[in-house]
Specification:
Blueprint: E1 4-5, E2 11-12, H1 41-44, H2 78-83, E3 88-96, E4 103-107, E5 109-114, E6 121-122, E7 135-140, E8 145-150, E9 157-159, E10 162-163, E11 168-169, E12 175-178, E13 181-187
Parallel strand pairs: 5-6
Antiparallel strand pairs: 1-2, 3-4, 3-13, 5-7, 7-8, 8-11, 9-10, 9-12, 12-13
């Protein structure tokens, strides 16, 4: 790769840019980098054109309020909302398969199982497990009940050797099979304990 130097002394890759990317873009105002805590909300809002024409303002005037802590648009579980944390309510432990010996935390409400990084229970070592939503383990904090749900992927899920085609109650010691992986269910929350 041979870099080219423009008349202002900037180097650039001519295979990616026809002109100097620093010089070739006209009328751009580059500001110095500032720390996040130095930036004020007013600095990030677009400025109204002269005369205020064509600008929609919030009712009652003023700038929109920044989100409060915990109001960043993410959905949180009921237990998380009450306790301020998202505590573990049980575990799945891999007893057969490529991830044998690994444990997975189960949290309140829905826990999506698949091999993808975005899954709550990510079974990375088994390529026969669907990337997303192979199955779901849920915990209902009001009823203190766990259930196993079939996912919306191609793969089947089994509970104690039986195919799961509708939500099925889970109890301590149950075995869940997906692909070539077998998981043992270990609850923490039950009739004797819950996070409230």
């Amino acid at each position: 790769m041979a870099l080219k130097r423009c008349e202002n002394g900037h180097y650039f890759d001519p295979a990616k840019h026809t002109t100097c990317p620093s010089c070739g873009v006209q009328n751009i105002n580059f500001e110095p980098t500032r720390k996040k805590d130095e930036i004020k909300l007013a600095d990030t809002l677009p400025q109204a054109p002269a005369g205020g024409a064509g600008v929609t303002a919030p009712a009652g005037g003023g700038a929109p309020k920044p989100p409060r802590a915990g109001e960043d648009g993410k959905t949180v579980s009921l237990i998380h909302k009450k306790a301020g944390i998202d505590p573990v309510v049980g575990w799945l432990v891999c007893v057969e398969g490529a991830d044998r010996g690994r444990d997975y935390r189960i949290r309140s409400e829905k826990n999506f199982i698949g091999r993808g990084e975005s899954m709550d229970v990510a079974i990375r070592g088994d390529e026969t497990v669907s990337r997303e939503n192979h199955a779901v383990v849920s915990f209902n904090p009001k009823a203190r009940q766990f259930k196993l749900h079939p996912g919306d992927s191609r793969g089947l899920v089994y509970l104690n050797g039986e195919e799961v085609d509708h939500p099925s109650p889970l109890k301590a010691g149950d075995h869940i099979e997906l692909g070539q992986t077998k998981l043992l269910f270990v609850p923490l929350c039950d009739d004797t304990f819950t996070w409230e």
